[in-house]
Write a structure and sequence with these properties.
By secondary structure, this protein is an alpha/beta fold. 27% of the residues lie in helices and 24% in strands. Pfam families: DDAH_eukar (PF19420).
């Protein structure tokens, strides 16, 4: 069972200075959606550690990119966009002091890696080689967690690997019908160490979901994809609207780091 989640409040600067803004962000609505998001995490049994906002870091609500935590160890990431690299400082502090987990740092100065490119399936790591994560970053992840196979996958157009595919249940990948998602799935079937079941949704953004503690958290904005989840998923589901995050390239997994802390 996962035990904790790290989240970070939205700074006002998110409204105009976040990377990848595609439409006008309603800041108050975004803050309400973030509260609902945190509530959903608490409802699945997670203790939510909520960090304060930082106006100097407009993208810092997207904590997922700052660390990869597995088997009680945290690898501090080096985000691929230079404006985001300071975000790791507070995350490092809270992991060290509040969660008291051992921390690994990336030694290679050339390595970049965003947590949004790292999918842990429970059996292995799939790593997107994207505009934010490079091969040196993938090697740093492999060095940090030598007990698991690591399969790098080239990402052509999407921001991160997890924009195209996530876990939707035990040994179950959620992918969309979009060509890039299907190409990535094909590569996983050819190169990954394990075979996975799949749930295929019609909407690209809906492929990013969170499976935690026996519950699937998915987007509510896509009725056709919701219908697929209703038909295919026979355990608890929570549907959330994160429309304002998606206007800044945000996906459902982006605003949290979910952690399994052993006592």
């Amino acid at each position: 069972m996962s035990t904790h989640a790290i989240v970070r409040r939205i700074p006002n600067s998110f409204k105009t200075l976040a990377l990848g803004i595609s439409d006008e962000i309603d800041l108050e609505k975004a803050k309400t959606q973030h509260e609902e998001y945190c509530k959903a995490l608490r409802n699945v049994g997670l203790k939510v550690i909520e960090l304060p906002e930082d106006e100097n870091l407009p993208d810092s609500v997207f904590v997922e990119d700052t660390a990869v935590i597995c088997n009680g160890t945290a690898l501090i990431c080096r985000p691929g966009h230079p404006t985001r690299q300071k975000e790791v400082e507070m995350i490092r502090t809270v992991i060290k002091k509040e969660l008291e987990l051992p921390i690994l740092e990336i030694s290679d100065p050339e390595a970049t890696i965003d947590g949004g490119d790292v999918l842990f399936t429970g059996r292995e790591f799939l790593v997107g080689l994207s505009s934010r994560t490079n091969e040196a970053g993938s090697r740093a992840l492999a060095a940090a967690f030598p007990e698991y196979p690591v399969t790098p996958i080239r990402i052509k157009h999407k921001l991160h690997l997890k924009t195209s595919l996530t876990m939707a249940g035990p040994d179950t990948l959620c992918v969309s019908e979009e060509q890039e998602s299907q190409d990535i799935l094909k590569k996983i079937e050819q190169e990954a160490s394990f075979q996975y079941k799949t749930i295929t949704v019609p909407d690209g953004d809906a492929a990013n979901c969170i499976y935690v503690n026996g519950t699937l958290i998915h987007l509510s904005e896509f009725p056709n994809s919701t219908k697929v989840f209703e038909e295919k998923v026979d355990f608890n589901r929570i549907a959330l609207n994160i429309s304002e995050f998606r206007k800044a390239d945000g996906s459902l997994t982006c605003p949290s780091i979910v952690i399994k802390k052993t006592k």
